[in-house]
Fold these 2 entries.
Entry 1:
Amino acid sequence: MNWNLSNESSNDLMTGGRDMPWLQDTNEVNVAVSWGANYRDVVILDAWNRPLDPPFNLTALDLANKANREALKTRLRQAAVLVDADNDGIGDDWEERHFTTLDRNGESDPDKDRENNLMEYACGSGPENGGSVPLFSTMMVASEQGSFFSMSFRRRLGVAGGLKYRLEWSEGGRVWTDASGAMTLSQIENPYDGTGTEVVTYTFVNPSGGTAVFRVQVGF
Ligand SMILES: [Ca+2]
Ligand SMILES: [Ca+2]
Ligand SMILES: [Ca+2]
């Protein structure tokens, strides 16, 4: 859809100080007309921006009434549940978007870039594009306390069906140690780019000062 998307920080705006983007309808798209929306309709969308029927009208269903508040809350929660009908751990929405079928599983690698579908799903890359692979950007950052290692990568937003990201580090690449206690999650940024992922940055101070190797394992 052709949304105007902005994330202004001005407190004069309705979105000021919040991290939720403001969706602005345009004359070209005119969603209010194409959806047949009525005044005070709450239209809940699925992951493809398709309205889920029927709209919840705030005039007919006054939120001062507790039963109406609960009904709206229930509908929002239902809309946010990950659907995985083929039980392969990958959201069906993502499979349909990339493959138009649920026949592919997490282990397959249709674009032959040596990253299986689960890894591409987990890290926001394109599973039908061999030139699109999970990216892990690293750098050394100098500070007054000394230099530290920084690593950024994409992970799926929310609980994502129980997907886990296990960070490990090693001095020689043979013995791997859980790095969750040694690495600090220093930044989370949602790029709002439609991939359903956020960019996380971890920092690490090497206690021995020697060579350190890192890896991220993805699984359930
Ligand atoms: Ca699935
Ligand atoms: Ca692949
Ligand atoms: Ca790929």
Note: The CA atoms of residues 154 and 199 lie 4 Å apart.
Entry 2:
Amino acid sequence: MKSECDEKKYITEHEFDEHIAIVKDWTDTFIHDTGDAPTYYIRTFGCQQNDRDSELAAGILEEMGFRPGASPEASDVVLFNTCSVRANADNRFYGHLGSLKPIRKGGRPLIGVFGCMMEQDIHVNAVKRTFNYVDFILGAGTARVLPYALSQTLLSDRTKRNTIDLTDWRGLGDDTSLPVWRADPHRALVTIMTGCNNFCSYCIVPHTRGREQSRSYEMIVEESRRAVACGAKDIMLLGQNVNSYGNDLRRRGEVDAPTFATLLREISHIEGLWVVRYMTSHPKDLSDELIEVIRREPRIESHIHLPLQSGSDRVLRRMNRRYDSAHYLNLVRKLRSARDGITITTDLIVGFPGETEEDFEATLRVMEEAQFDAAFTFLYSPRVGTPAADWYEESHEEIVRKRFQRLVEYQNECSLASNKKLEGQVVEVLVDGFSRRDETILSGRTHDDRLVNFSGLLTSSFTCQECSPNEVVVPHEVNRGDVVQVLIESAGIYSLDGKLIQDN
Ligand code: SF4
């Protein structure tokens, strides 16, 4: 595990520009020689913070002259953005990395790995030892180091089997000035803070992403305004615990540093925005001030994701969550009375080490009372380097699987009942494009973050004319990024089906 005290090396803004220029020279030569731009492919694992980091990496690659490739096999650069939160993501990453070995010929594709797993020595060493065709590795949140990694790799003999390890490198400067490439321009992810101070006993994040660091209020607002000017209707503010935004600034003497509630209100006032979302809210830090802002500001989403993890006070103590079930349920009551119809979703872990039948029943009781609209349910996954991993006993796996099944069945009933309430109603939907399952159906999300599939015609891919001047926007038809009215005809556990209501 790398520590906060490990010596870091820094890329200045000037060096960042210099390395961009070196790589750009290389891409210009490539285009001159082949007639085509070199291509990139990024595979992202894990949370929306990783999605955001990949958007920055893509933006920087585009700036240097690369264009998106259709697949890893068809690309000149393949990047993996890794996640260390669950064993499942580790295993999938190694599987994908292994599958590149047969297609790597004469140093193509160039392969880079970054993200949370590369903050842990165990994974860094595993990549260097077992997958020595990886060209370079970087840590988490290090988009500013990417041009340096590429310039070093392109200048080296890539047929030699050695991985350039840049995991100790960081970039100086705020992300606001970085280019960003969004797959969905009508949705913008905006990081408000990185790291976490909470040290939940099962979680690796504070060890990989470091302590809380809030970005400047002005830069967050500027980035959000710019995103809306470029066509974003939906902004997601990101942090491991958004409710503690500004605490680190206040500790460092900025006594008037704004709270998250103030920031959220300010963003919600940006003209042209349809909804502002935020992720994730730690229940111990959800303030009355924030609930009041949620009550007053209609552009703040009618949804909150509030991870419960367990309904047992004994387990919550062992998880180091620093709230109890009574506090949590009190928040649920306050939120439901502050915003009529607000959806509340949660995370639940089943099989935390030492969980008894009584603890599990306590979780079910809190679920009954809270009536979550949806839940992400997880089997406990031990993470090396966390206290809980030392308490793990595999012998309980069968019991835990049965509990998991019961919990999922109950939550499915609640999710279905929540969605059924919308049958026969007309709801507003922000259009994302074609449904993943069926290219004759469109899909999008409601203000309260429900997935809606509906019939209709998608006529073009709307983006900002300044950013994408070649896009054709067809008026009076449905475009990605439109907000449309949909009549909900039927509800399922995970989504709603409906039909488009025409304006005329
Ligand atoms: S709040 Fe807990 S679960 Fe969330 S990132 Fe921090 S330590 Fe991990």
Note: The radius of gyration is 23 Å.
